[in-house]
Structures are given as structure tokens and as C-alpha cells.
Amino acid sequence: MRMKQRITYLIAAMTPPTRAVALAVVAAVLATGGWRLHDALQPDLSCAEGISRHEDDSECVGVTDGAYSFDDGLDEVSARIKVENDSVVHQRHVSVAIMIPMAADAPFERRKILTEVQGMYLAQYRANHRSNDQTPKIRLLLANPGRDHRHWREVSDQLARRTASLENLRAVVGFNVSVDRTEKAIGYLTNVKHIPVVGGAVTADDIGNSAHRPDAYRGFVRVLPTTTDQASALQSFLTKDIDPKRTQVVEDTREDDIYTTSLKNAFHELAKDAPRAPEQYRSPRDFSQEGHTSNDFHQMVNTLCISPADTVYFAGRPVQLRQFVNALGARPCVQKKYRVVTGYAASTLASDTKLHWKALTSGVTVQYASVAHPDAWTGPHAPATGGSASAYRTLSELADEAAGKPVGPIGRVDLTDSRTVTTYDAAWTAITAVRNNSGTGSGIPSLEQVRNAWLRLHGVNKVEGASGWICLDNHGNPYDKLVAVVQLDPRTRTVDFVGHAWPRNGKPPAKDCTASAD
Asked: How far apart are CA 179 and CA 195, in angstroms?
């Protein structure tokens, strides 16, 4: 389908004489494959079963079981998902969906999408083949709401219909960015359609439940520490060598980005003794685009050079973070060293081909709050509680096997950026809730039973995540979840583990892994 679309666009852009020749050639080529020229050039508004193309943006959105691939980079993993789904369709099964934008222009964004789908598939494969024949079996659906989640309502309704079909949809996982449309989609799925949702890379405090808003999203839980918890963990970890009077906040002023709003509020607390007001910029509406913020950072760096600050708390998205780091690497005060501290969204920075790694050899260090790293639980200083090496190795061994059959191939799996680990843990949390409530005679739990199961996922029933223990509190947030502090290494162009940080008093959770009364 994508090939037909590309041919149509190319021919339309040609001059009339060239177009006539091209049409003749294309008609002959298409005929050998059983296609007619008329069919190839007609607007195709049905990319595949359950997948529709929108004329306004020509993007294919909808829900598939892997039979359709939303992007060339997803071809291998989609094919394996289809095989796995077909293998359990005649057994007692439920479906779990991942809902994230499935296509992007920037290579690092496409890589992020792939790693998240890989994490979901590895959880599915483990559930069906490495869990002592537990039931129900798991089918995986891929739900593409379009870029910037612009078609979230349409896709949410498609998912809702699958809860009452033979597909038995019982949970939706994903939502990899904390923006207003994500918030609306989660609210619609949980509060209107009553579908349990497990957040992937959403960390903003406002997208979730709390003591002040206990029923904001009924049936929503997350596996990552909130943005405030990340900041608290960073504070306890970095306090010993950061002087608050030598800090500076750099922040995005765009109002509709819940992640950056949460992050800058948290950083304001960390930098409350800073001598200067935050340096501000405004990113484009589509923050994955370059915009003109690089010009802002060029000027901002000159101001930073004459300030006392040597630690910068950066509240912004990956593209703007990369632009800022590149500008800081070309600063006029080259003798002055800087540490840039930021949140989880920085996990894609190492795969951004536009990052000037040379900037990190000129006295600039980039550290951020991650949720997982291979050395966090397998290294010599792993704590006794809060996670385990065996839980991480369960995933890493599967990832190694995924290069070939029977697990793969699903493309190269890289666990260092934490995105694969995050979606794997989110999927495993959903699967655990489903299997802890096997339902009545059918062995299929209801949506309500899955929602109620969230209340049991703590203590001895905690989820042994690859990123660490997931001990849900009564509001669906992970209690005292590990924040792995990491930094970019310009020598290897990878991510190095720096240390363990904890939101609660800087200490890992107790063995009972249950939220305290406060």
C-alpha cells in the first residue's frame, strides 16, 4: 500500500511529457504484479482491514493484529506479532493493545517507536511461551492514533469495540508522550469506555491519579515514577555536589505540554535558591520539529556564560535539548564546565544523529533521570531491594534471542535507552493483572476485574519489572520506584549508568514494597 502511495505522489509531481512516459512504464510494471494502473492511482482510503487513510494528512491510522505494518521499520516485529497472534487465536485468550503514534520523520523518533513495540512483543512472547503455560494467552494489537495523537478518538472507539468482540481486549498500554491529546485519550478510554490503561512513558503528574484527584482517570496506572518523583530522586542523589546558588533553569513556555510543565515546576523547587530567573524559550507546536529555537539557544548560551551557574536544569523536549547541548558545546566561555540535568524524555538523545557528541568532550555533561539501565541491577552495587538481576535478565535473554527464530527476528534490540524496558514492564503489568483475575466460567476476566486487580499489585504481589519493582499505591502510581541516573558518554556514544536514586528519602523501598500511610 505504501508503494502505491509513493508512486502516485511521484507521478503527480512530474511535468506532462515526463508523466506520460512514466505512466506507460508504471502500467507495465504494475501489470506484472497483478495491479491495474487505475487501482494504483485511485485515492486509497482503506490501507488495510481496520486501517483508514485520512485525506487531510494521508496517514494510515487504526488497529491491526500485525497483518499491517505502519512503517517500514516495523515490518519485522509486526510480522512476528501476527505469527504469535495467529498461534493463540483458537485458545483461551485476551488482547492487549499498544497505542502510540506508529510513524515519524526523524530517525531517532522512528527508533523510539520500534523499541517500544519490541518491548510489547517481548512481553507477549514471554507470557505465551515462558510462563509455565498460564492462561489466558495474550494477543497483541497495534493501535496507531496518528502523529501527535490527532486521531485518538477514532482509534479509541475502535479499541472499545474490541472489548465486546471475540478479541477480548482487556487493557491498553502505551501513550509515550505527556501532551493534552494524550490526556484526553486516557480520560476517554478509562472514564468513558472503562478500559484499563497502563501508561508507558507518560510521567507528568497531572496525567494520573493522586490523593487530591483519586478518580481523575479510573482504571489508569503507570510503571514510571512521576516527574515530581524523578526530580525528588535527582535532588537526593545530586545534593552532595550541586550548589543551588550555582543553578539555572532553562524552560519551555509552551502551555499544552504537560510533561515540560511538570518538569519545570519540579526544577523550580530544586533551583529555588538560584540567583537568576529561568531562561525561557518556546518550542514549535510540533516539538519534534526544529523550529527556530536553535537561534534562541545560541543567544541564551552567551547569557549563561556570564552567570554564576554551572548546573542547568533543562525542562524541555529531546529536539530542543539537543539544540541546547549543541549550542552549549560551542559556547564562548569554553573554560567553564557545565552539567545539564533533565528528565526521562532525554532517553532518545543518544540516538539523535544531529547531536554534536564533540560538545560532550568540551566540558559539558548531560545527566538525566532514566528508569532502566543494564548496569542498574546487574552491577556490583545493586541494592538488595527495589528490583532484581533475575527480572532484568529475563528480558535481556529474550532480547538476545530475538535476533532469530523462534522469538524473532524483530530488528536490533537495545535496552540501554530504557524505552524497550518501559513498554515491556507496562505490558507485563497489564498481563499480570489479567492473569491474577481469571474470570468465572470462561476464564476471561471482565474489564472491571482487571481494573480491580491494580489494587493488589504491591507487597508479595508486586510486579517484578525489568526496570525494578513496580509496587502500585492506591492511586496506581509506583511507590518509591527506582530512578536510574545516567549520562551520555561521548567516547562510546552510549549511555552510562551513574547511580541509583530514590524518590522516598533517597532510599530503596522495604521488602514489603507497600506505600506508607502518608
From this structure: 20
**Residues 503, 480: contact at Cβ < 8 Å?**
yes
Q: Which three-class secondary structure state does DSSP give residue 361? A: helix
- Confidence check: pLDDT of 125 > 80: yes
> Could you report how far apart the first and last alpha carbons of the chain are, in Å?
55
- 166 CB burial (10 A radius; 0-12, 13-18, 19+): exposed
Quick check: helix, strand or coil at residue 305? helix
Closest CA to 226 of 347, 371, 109: 371
User: What does DSSP assign to residue 179?
Assistant: B
Helix H, strand E, coil C: the string for 208-244 is CCCCCCCCCCCCEEECCCCHHHHHHHHHHHHHHHCCH
Task: List the Cα angle 218/452/201 in 5-degree steps.
Answer: 55
Contact 260, 251 (CB under 8 A): yes
According to DSSP, residue 49 is labeled T
Q: By three-state DSSP, how is residue 283 classified?
A: coil
Q: What is the pLDDT of residue 203?
A: 86
**Distance between CA 54 and CA 37 in Å, rounded?**
22
Question: What CA–CA distances, in Å, run from 11 to 36, 37, 57?
Answer: 15, 12, 19
Cell of 481: 520506584
**Farthest CA pair distance, the chain:** 77
DSSP summary character for residue 81? H
Neighbours of 471 (CB within 10 A): 24
Per-residue pLDDT tens for 183-222? Answer: 999 999 999 999 999 998 888 888 999 999 999 999 999 9
- pTM for this structure? 0.87
DSSP letter at 188? I
Q: What DSSP string runs through 388-453?
A: -HHHHHHHHHHHHHTTSTTT---S----TTSHHHHHHHHHHHHHHHHHT---STTS---HHHHHHH
Strand partners for 251: 280, 315
Is 110:73 a contact under the CB 8 Å cutoff?
Answer: yes
Which residues are registered as beta bridge partners of 487? 367, 496
CA distance 209 to 218: 8
Set of cell numbers at residue 27: 502500467
As a whole number of angstroms, the distance between CA 382 and CA 261 comes to 32
Cell 508479595 maps to which residue?
460
Strand pairing of 311-315 and 279-281? unpaired
Q: How many CA atoms lie within 13 A of 47 on its CB side?
A: 22
The helix (H) or strand (E) run that includes residue 485 is strand 483-489
Are the C-beta atoms of residues 139 and 173 closer than 8 Å to each other?
no
**pLDDT tens per residue, range 154-170:** 999 999 999 999 999 99
DSSP 454: G
